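Internal ticket #5521
Category: modeling
Description: The requester needs a full-assembly model to guide mutagenesis choices. All entity lines are attached below as received. Residue total reported by intake: 828.
Assigned to: D.W.
Attached entities:
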Amino acid sequence: MLAIDDDRILADLRTLAGFGKLGTGVDRTSFTEADMAARQWLCGRMAEAGLEAAIDGVGNVYGRTAGVRAAVLLGSHTDSVPGGGWLDGALGVIYGVEIARACRLARASATIGVDVVSFADEEGTFLPLLGSRSFCGELSDEELTGARNSAGAALSKRLADLGLGARPPARLDPSRYRAYLEAHIEQGPRLVSEGIDIGVVTGIVGVRRYRVAFRGRADHAGTTPMAMRRDAAFALFNFAVRLAERFRAAAGPDSVWNFGVVTVKPGAGNVVPSEAELVVEFRDQHEATIRRFEQELHAVEHEFDGAQGVSVAKNLIGSLPPAMMDADLRETLAAAADELAASRIAMPSGAGHDAMILARHIPSAMLFVPSVGGRSHDISEDTSEIDIRRGAHVFARAVELLLARFERQRGPNS
Amino acid sequence: MLAIDDDRILADLRTLAGFGKLGTGVDRTSFTEADMAARQWLCGRMAEAGLEAAIDGVGNVYGRTAGVRAAVLLGSHTDSVPGGGWLDGALGVIYGVEIARACRLARASATIGVDVVSFADEEGTFLPLLGSRSFCGELSDEELTGARNSAGAALSKRLADLGLGARPPARLDPSRYRAYLEAHIEQGPRLVSEGIDIGVVTGIVGVRRYRVAFRGRADHAGTTPMAMRRDAAFALFNFAVRLAERFRAAAGPDSVWNFGVVTVKPGAGNVVPSEAELVVEFRDQHEATIRRFEQELHAVEHEFDGAQGVSVAKNLIGSLPPAMMDADLRETLAAAADELAASRIAMPSGAGHDAMILARHIPSAMLFVPSVGGRSHDISEDTSEIDIRRGAHVFARAVELLLARFERQRGPNS
């Protein structure tokens, strides 16, 4: 069994959490001083673990095992949301560095090695999944040039100021990589509430986001009889209740939806609302289910448009397809958990991850460890030490099983 | 029949609309330069009409007929909301000045006269119904001292700067006044949509306003299963739909309600809403109906509080009791309309007016003329010339009938 040092993993995670420390969490949004200092430190840790490490033109920290003809790529990200948690992303990167170190020591003559990557700006301060999209060649020059953060600062200028702009971006070499594996905190309550150690991710859900606009008419709420009103907000309330009914009927076992943004204008107690807006988001790992949700939304829009003098119009504002995880890799993660007597469930990831980009190019899979209280994107995010250690051993064992299998598959002539 | 000059009424209304002119409307919020210039001009018009006129310590413009032992008070207000209409308030004041002039000429030896008032800050730039509340002795020194506008400016300083602070406020003399009559635009669509000339106001509705707060928990909308959510916004939607159902069942023929303010936090497409707020307002001219609405609100609050992990708590933020209009005065207004072959309906006022304050002290009544499209509190507010003229003649005839009746009631010995 691969000899990883889970004390070093915890120590490295704690050191990493010192960059941008904010209470029990971190504020390490992309390309801030704290984020770049963390990347420099990480680059040093990779080198110290025996990898050839460098920061590429978009900020990816990329460490490669020298002298091998193929590799398994392990990774995640080290940037955070504003006021985020210490493990979101960081966990998978530090697992990767420790496993790469252990593999290099244990398997010095191997022809298949372990590479590690920390992708830039997974959280989308400038551009969501920037690093993995760049790495996979999915990022156009226009997107890169046009990207700005919420304060209006240009990504290209920030990269130039950091001295990264002139460096070439690292690119995925499909002939080198057999698999991409990402360990991550669950960011939800399922493992914790069911008392399960490990989540083997079946797929990363697809997302659709629509803005639904309601247009009525502003009227004096004292002098306008109820029957003569064109109340945009009340139409929205009824619409949301009706849509949720139909979503419940159309849902698969893991479907989720959210009505997270609601605005009502003009927003005075004595004025009938003339305008209202609702952001409707839904997610499922099956594209067919997402299409059912879209049909339901369309039907309810049609049902409500024009009723009580209120027009209803929806507008697609975001779309990500589902990404299925590789079946063989999932089996390997499950087998490793079983060997180490860790309980496990198969579950979709409701959040997006770099693995959703990688999965379009090479076989990919993810492992989840429990999130205390299901919390994430907050400084209260945490995972117990025992779960961090257990997850590392399961993940390391899975990598070991994979490397052994890939070595066998290459055969004596390769 | 009292000889009023409706051309002069229109001319005066157009002159008054020149103060703070904004497109087809006016911006004449209380104690601005435009508002004070309008008051000075109005004071002059009252004097020219033969009244003893002055501006009092809170900005009321008050014109009295000299040499009479009793009077009928006619009035309304000349301040506006920001970007308001040219007739809201102004109509009733200018009707009053013209009727006072005509009465003085026609009834020089009468013992009962006509007084006119333009109350300050009816629209509540600093303090709603400031002028009429001050006039009726309903305003405490604390309220007057503490009042500020939305920009934080203190009313007391503004009054001092305008040289009004040292003047005594005019006070209602109950021994002088037999009645208060206020003409006003309807500010709603009923007269226009039913093709009716005159509204005889039965009462000014009472208003209750509640803030209802929903508290749930913020969660990642991708990773949190539907059954584990505590969604404050979805609770609000269901609450509003349910409450409206119960309000419909509890409503009288003229009850109205409005859910005009809706806020949802944190307000992101991918975060389950943790907090939501709804402002619930309802109005009726009968206190018993208002109490039924309060009971329904309380019942629905109780039904929803704690359901799906969301707490619900309501908080009273505004309350005005209904004000019934005097039955004899209403009959006189109706009789005047009938004499002049103006069609009429009895209807409540859904908006507040100075008459709701006066009605607590002396017999009071209101007459409405149609509002084009039901519009008000907007520069698009308007009333057709023919309706302005017709309203003036009906209102003048009603005053004439009242004066004659009061003279008879006083008898030869008084």
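Resolution: model delivered.
Comment from assignee: Chain A touches chain B through 58 residues (CB under 8 Å).
Ticket closed.
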